[in-house]
Specification:
Blueprint: H1 9-27, E1 38-45, E2 49-52, E3 58-60, E4 62-67, E5 71-76, E6 79-81, E7 89-91, E8 98-100, E9 112-120, E10 123-126, E11 130-134, E12 148-151, E13 156-158, E14 170-174, E15 187-189, E16 195-197, E17 206-215, E18 220-223, E19 227-232, E20 240-246, E21 251-257, E22 262-265, E23 267-271, E24 275-280, E25 290-293, E26 298-301, E27 310-318, E28 321-339, E29 344-346, E30 352-355, E31 357-361, E32 365-370, E33 373-374, E34 384-387, E35 390-393, E36 402-410, E37 413-423, E38 426-430, E39 436-441, E40 446-448, E41 452-455, E42 459-464, E43 467-469, E44 475-477, E45 483-485, E46 494-502, E47 505-516, E48 520-523, E49 528-531, E50 536-539, E51 541-543, E52 551-556, E53 559-560, E54 567-569, E55 573-576, E56 585-592, E57 597-607, E58 614-619, E59 625-631, E60 642-649, E61 653-664, E62 669-673, E63 679-687, E64 702-703, E65 714-719, E66 725-731, H2 735-738, E67 744-751, E68 758-762, E69 767-771, E70 778-787, E71 790-791, E72 798-801, E73 812-820, E74 823-829, E75 840-852, E76 864-869, E77 874-877, E78 884-894, ...
Parallel strand pairs: 2-11, 12-19, 21-28, 29-37, 39-47, 49-57
Antiparallel strand pairs: 1-4, 3-8, 5-6, 5-9, 7-8, 9-10, 9-11, 13-16, 14-17, 15-16, 17-18, 17-19, 20-23, 22-26, 24-27, 25-26, 27-28, 28-31, 30-35, 32-33, 32-36, 34-35, 36-37, 38-41, 40-45, 42-43, 42-46, 44-45, 46-47, 48-51, 50-55, 52-53, 52-56, 54-55, 56-57, 58-59, 59-62, 60-61, 60-63, 63-64, ...
Length: about 1150
């Protein structure tokens, strides 16, 4: 039901209310304003059948309106009831309501038929006949119930027969402990209160069958004397075809009134207990209006219509046969309105009709009265014509107002209606309030009222924005003046005007309509399947008109949410904490405004592990199998996937439960294959999507008989642990596999292809050691299970060897081929297989460095061993030391051990590159020299031929300078580098060398010393007064030049920048003007940011990049000049050459000329 929209009880009630309001808009009766003269109208009265409680006062209602206000009088049983003469009766002021004080009186005195008359000078209206009856709860008559004795299997009826009450009592059966007697398809209570047994069983014997009657008005309960029933078994009744206890026979007839509820009942006797089913002959049961009760024995049809008449058949059926009973239903009808007479307002000289249109079965009789008197006995009125259900009034005159009563009756009831005729001459008036605001939802129907009154009846016309509205597909004007907009849209919003007019005048009114957006749930709750004790969250997000504020209501199964703090309602959600099984159900979110609503529902399903199976039963018991059946437990909303069957062998492994088999979740039985000589107990577990259930209770024990073994030991292996022994091992049989007592193992062996077997019989062991066997000889072995009931199947033969001994021969023709200073290759001949005396596992190559050829040291290293598996005869020796002397030998090995070693082989490795120099250190000697010191490598790997020293300067950005190299002799361990640049960072690389090449380098970095004297001199100059004055003068000069430049430009207008910029893309390559030698106009579009790493020289001058114009650079001799129009004089090419020669030096400060240009 994920996200399914539903109409809840609240929603249904709201829709019904809206429909009723719409209908009232269109069909409301004509209302005469109370300030105008009019006959009385009954507005409130008591029901026709009024049952009173004798312990309370009697209140009979009769209220009416009219102009002038009516007076009231009563009749009782057809005669005038003088209220003033009875001190117990009071009529309430302004109404006809009667209050009868019955204290000290018997209520029966005031029983009878009452009718109220409301009259004024324009006519009289009368109420219905109100029948006053006292509720009664008479006592049960004294009786003595004799015990009832019946034979088992026969039918039985226990009669209740309570005293007649008003209204009838409610019947139920209970025992002495006030517990309701259980009812089912065999035992049930009939509609008349009797208790029916289709057949009795021995358990029906008891002495406290008690019928209780509860009288609802007095709230009293009375009980019948207990009935004793004794069921005998000496002559039980056998199985039989069903027959009907109620109603008896094969046919019956019943009558029901239209609109009432039809109840049909069939109760059958029979053994086994019959099942009841219902059909309608020549038709179908009415969809949505029928239901079954009392275990299918009662059929109820609500709101009966004429179409429900006909034949209904009930069928009682058991395995012995079936019987049927046909009930003919006759539908009658008390009078009901087709069109009740309505008040009639006529102007003088007008004509009108009063219509009283009714129906019923049989057809009702219609009589007319005027002002409460039969119309036949009233004065003759030539303007009035009566024709059955219609009174026609012609050419009416002022003063002929009256109240007419229509009475329609048949055998099953009556209808009484008052309708007045009022003759008035009245100009129109609009009764709907002025400027009333109507709000509707888009795409729904809008009804705009224009309730009016006038005589003659006014004609209603509607306007919107001065445009007349006529009946169309969009608009419809009802008879009562209501304007209906069939499908309201936002553009229909606005002001509407209605005008009521008759021959006496006009009256207009204005109303306003607002069409709003509908309320819609855009994120609906979704189906949830959660485990117990977890959290469930339902979302309910809504989109709505911004002028409407929706409320949110959550329902569970169309009822209120439980009053439980676990239910948390958020602004757009419902959260349920610690979910339990009781939380299952359908949750509905209702978002409603004052105009509309939307709802959505989703189902919550709580899942958990299934309950364990029950009722384990063993059937179909055989020597090697048994059938196990069980009853599944509650699956808790998650289907059972499988059942796991476990067993316990209490003979061999008591208390240990092992998995036996699995069956599908739809099975409730399994055929189990069993082993002999086992004491079985079984249990079953259920698995669903959540997990495994608890285990069921164990079944009863099932013991199988002993038998000879079905299997032999597995995993039989033969192995040799010493040169003259052989071990035979196997996996022992389990108790389940033993099949009987006295389990032993028959172990047999012989050499391959020999004829004679050697056999031993052992018990409770899993291996046997055979001694005195020849070395590494192939044997055949078998292991067979035997017990007191015989031998197991013929065993399989397993092959295996006796124990191994060490090899006897060493490998020969061992040769070593040196590949490099660190690797050699060794070759040898394989030993003869006959000398291995076992399974050859491979060869072990042992080699050892004896000494270094350079150092002449004799500190030997530990021997190293390489293993080459299988029958390989070549191998590589890695990670050797260059320029070293080695010794090597080889031996074969098997599972027992190593054979003898080969003759030692000697070999030498050639020179290799040396290791890195050690202890490298760099020291400052003075401002421009560094001393590099080191010690020789730890591993010479040959004769050192010298050292290679490389070095280069590096700046702060790690850009390297020129790399220089120095070759040094092998006996040098230090070197001094002179004529280096002071205050410079250097990087050094030092390698040792042999004839083979250079070894790995050692890298170091160092700085030459800083010239502190020069630094101090620069600092002293910067603090001298003359230097500071010079810098200020230069700054002042630059400022004066800027001012002059600015004035010249503004005055002469010959320094335009942007005007010429577009004509020349690159201002730095403009040709000089031929006429005055000046450059092309300057462009300010260059990027004036300093280059990375640029610095300002210490002498205070500012050097510019190619895009900045310097006042000095443009001059040929360094003297910058302006000509009279403010343009520069000088050679542009001179600036270019100068910039190129300066290399990477560039200015950090922007040009002052460019700075000024940026402002102009």
């Amino acid at each position: 039901m994920d996200g399914k929209r539903s109409c809840s009880l609240c929603g249904g009630a709201m829709m019904i209310m809206m429909m009723m309001m719409m209908i009232s808009h269109m069909t409301s009766a004509l209302e005469v304003p109370l300030d105008l003269p009019q006959p009385p109208t009954i507005t409130n009265q008591s029901p026709k059948d009024y049952i009173i409680d004798p312990r309370e006062n009697i209140n009979i209602f009769c209220e009416a309106k009219g102009k002038p206000h009516p007076s009231f009088s009563w009749t009782r049983n057809g005669t005038h009831f003088d209220v003033e003469k009875d001190p117990k009766v009071v009529m309430m002021p302004g109404t006809g309501n009667l209050v009868i004080d019955i204290s000290g009186e018997k209520a029966e005195v005031y029983e009878g038929v009452y009718q109220c008359i409301a009259r004024n000078e324009h006519g009289s209206a009368v109420s219905n006949n109100i029948v006053i009856r006292q509720s009664r709860s008479p006592l049960w008559s004294k009786e003595k119930n004799e015990p009832i004795t019946v034979q088992r299997g026969t039918s039985l009826i226990l009669q209740c027969r309570p005293p007649a009450g008003l209204p009838p009592p409610i019947i139920f059966w209970m025992d002495n402990n006030f517990q309701r007697l259980p009812q089912n398809s065999r035992v049930s209570q009939a509609l008349n209160g009797d208790l029916y047994f289709s057949n009795v069983i021995m358990e029906d014997t008891r002495n406290d069958y008690i019928c209780y009657a509860r009288f609802p008005h007095t709230q009293t309960i009375q009980q019948k004397q207990p009935i004793t029933v004794k069921v005998l078994d000496n002559s039980p009744s056998g199985e039989r075809v069903p027959s009907f206890l109620h109603p008896p026979g094969m046919e019956s007839t019943t009558m029901v009134l239209k609109g009432d509820t039809l109840e049909l009942e069939c109760i059958a006797d029979g053994l086994p207990t019959p099942n009841i089913s219902w059909t309608k002959v020549n038709g179908e049961l009415p969809s949505g209006r029928f239901s079954f009760y009392s275990f299918q024995k009662t059929l109820k049809i609500k709101e009966v219509t004429e179409a429900d008449g006909g034949d209904y058949r009930c069928i009682a059926k058991n395995r012995m046969g079936s019987s049927q009973h046909t009930i003919t239903v006759v539908v009658r009808a008390a009078p009901f309105w087709i069109s009740a007479p309505q008040n009639l307002i006529l102007a003088p000289k007008e004509t009108g009709n009063l219509t009283c249109d009714v129906d019923g079965n049989p057809k009702p009789t219609i009589t007319w009265s005027v002002n409460g008197n039969p119309i036949e006995s009233s004065h003759n009125d030539p303007s009035r014509k009566v024709s059955d259900g219609v009174i026609t009034l012609s050419d009416v005159q002022t003063g002929s107002s009256a109240v007419y009563q229509c009475n329609a009756s048949n055998d099953y009831g009556y209808l009484l209606a008052n309708a007045f005729v009022s003759v008035l001459a009245e100009p129109p008036r609009v009764l709907t309030s002025l400027n009333h605001e109507y709000s509707v939802i888009s795409n729904s129907r809008a009804l705009l009222d224009c309730a009016s009154f006038g005589s003659p009846l006014p004609k209603i016309t509607w306007f919107k924005d001065s445009q007349s509205i006529l009946n169309s597909d969009l608009y419809h004007i009802h008879k009562n003046g209501t304007l209906e907009i069939n499908v309201a849209q936002p553009q229909n919003s606005g002001k509407y005007t209605c005008i009521a007019s008759n021959n006496l005048g006009n009256k207009e009114n204005h109303v306003h309509l607002q069409v709003k957006e509908p309320t819609r749930i855009i994120r609906q709750p979704e189906y949830k399947e959660v485990q117990r004790n977890s959290i469930a969250v339902f979302e309910c997000k809504v989109k709505h008109d911004p002028t409407l504020i929706p409320s949110m209501i959550w329902l569970k199964d169309n009822g209120e949410l439980p009053d439980d703090p676990r239910f948390e309602v958020g602004s757009d959600s419902l959260t349920i904490h610690d979910v339990t099984e009781d939380d299952e159900g359908t949750y509905t979110c209702i978002r409603n405004t004052t105009l509309d609503q939307d709802s959505a529902s989703a189902t919550l399903t709580v899942v958990e592990q299934p309950d364990p199976p029950t009722d384990l039963e063993l059937t179909d018991q055989r020597e090697r199998s048994v059938r196990l059946t069980w009853t599944p437990g509650d699956e808790h909303n998650s289907p059972i996937k499988l059942f796991l069957i476990q067993y316990e062998d209490s003979l061999h492994e008591p208390g240990v439960w092992l998995n036996m088999t699995e069956v599908s979740g739809t099975s409730t039985t399994a055929q189990l294959e069993l082993s002999p000589y086992v004491y079985y107990s079984f249990r079953v577990l259920a698995l669903n999507g959540v997990g495994l259930s608890e285990s069921s209770d164990p079944s009863r024990q099932y013991r199988t008989n002993p038998a000879k073994p079905d299997v032999n030991p597995s995993d039989v292996e033969v192995s040799g642990t010493s040169p003259d022994t052989m071990t035979i091992s196997w996996r022992e049989l389990s108790g389940l596999e033993s099949n009987g007592p006295g389990l032993q193992y028959k172990v047999s062996w012989r050499m391959k292809d020999a004829e004679q077997w050697t056999t031993v019989t052992l018990a409770n062991v899993s291996q046997h050691v055979v001694t005195g066997t020849p070395t590494f000889t192939l044997y055949e072995v078998t292991v067979q299970a035997v017990n007191d009931y015989g031998e197991g199947p013929r065993p399989e033969v397993v092959l295996g060897y006796s124990g191994e001994n060490s090899p006897t021969v060493a490998p020969e023709n061992v040769k070593v081929s040196v590949q490099s200073g660190t690797e050699a290759e060794v070759h040898w001949e394989a030993v003869p297989l006959s000398s291995v005396r076992g399974r050859l596992k491979g060869y072990k190559v042992t080699y050892q460095k004896m000494r270094s050829l350079h150092k002449q040291d004799y500190d030997r290293e530990n021997p190293q061993v390489l293993i080459f598996s299988g029958e390989e005869t070549v191998g590589r020796l890695p990670d050797l030391h260059p320029y070293s002397h080695y010794r090597l030998n080889i031996r074969a090995f098997n599972g027992h051990g190593d054979g003898p070693s080969s003759t030692d082989q000697q070999f030498q490795t050639p020179e290799g590159v040396p290791g890195p120099p050690t202890n490298v250190n760099i020291r400052n000697l003075n401002l421009d020299s560094l001393l590099v010191e080191w010690t020789p490598p730890l591993e010479d790997n040959g004769h050192l031929t010298g050292y290679l020293l490389k070095y280069q300067p590096i700046n702060t950005t790690e850009e390297a300078g020129l790399l220089k190299e120095v070759l040094l002799p092998a006996n040098e361990t230090s070197y001094t580098l002179d004529k280096l640049t002071h205050s410079t960072h250097y990087k050094f690389f030092l390698n040792a060398m042999t004839e083979t090449g250079s070894g790995p380098a050692v890298t170091k970095e160092a700085f030459t010393e800083v010239d502190e004297a020069m630094t101090n001199r620069q600092a002293e100059i910067a603090t001298q007064g003359w230097f500071i004055g010079l810098m200020c003068a230069i700054a002042l000069l630059i400022l004066v030049l800027l001012i002059v430049c600015f004035i010249k430009r503004n005055k002469g207008g010959k320094y335009p920048v942007k005007e010429k910029e577009d004509a020349h893309q690159d201002p730095e390559i403009q040709p000089m003007k031929e006429d005055d030698g000046t450059f092309g106009e300057y462009s300010d579009t260059e990027d004036h940011k300093p280059l990375k790493g640029s610095r300002t020289p210490s002498n205070g001058t500012v050097k510019k990049d190619d895009s900045d114009d310097s006042l000095v650079d443009y001059g040929e001799g360094g003297d910058g000049q302006f000509n009279e129009d403010g343009s520069f004089i000088g050679q542009y090419s001179g600036k270019k050459e100068k910039d190129t020669a300066e290399g990477n030096e560039s200015s950090e400060a922007p040009s002052p000329v460019n700075a000024m240009n940026s402002f102009v």
